Amino acid sequence: MTGGGPAQATNVVSFFIYHQAFSEFPFRYGYASAAAVIFGLAVLAAMGLQGLFVSRAQRERKDYGI
C-alpha cells in the first residue's frame, strides 16, 4: 500500500526476508535464511516470555482467590 513508506519504515520482517532472497540479483539466499532463523528464534523467545507471564499471572490469581 505505502511501498514501504519513507526509508522503508513500514516494511515487515517477512517482506524483508523475501526481498533479500528473491528480489535483487545476485540472490542472497544465505542472508535471508539467517534472517529467517533469527526472526524465528525471536518469535520463540517472545512466546516463551508470554507463557511465563501468563502462568505467573494465573498462579497469582489463584493465590488471591480471584
Characterize the structure shown.
The protein is an all-alpha fold and 66 residues long. It contains two helices and no strands.
Annotate the secondary structure layout.
Blueprint: H1 13-22, H2 29-64
The general outline is: elongated
**What structural category arises from helix and sheet content?**
mainly alpha
- Name the poorly predicted regions: none
Query: Care to count the β-strands?
Result: 0
How widely separated are the two ends?
Answer: 46 Å
How confident is the prediction overall: mean pLDDT?
Answer: 88
Q: Give the tally of structural domains.
A: 1
Largest sheet: none
Q: What are the secondary-structure elements, in order, as H or E?
A: HH
Helix content: 55-70%
Percentage of β-strand residues? under 5%
* Rg value: 19 Å
Write a compact overview of the structure shown:
With about 70 residues, the protein is mainly α. It has helices spanning about 15-20, 30-65.
Characteristic key phrases:
66 residues, mainly alpha
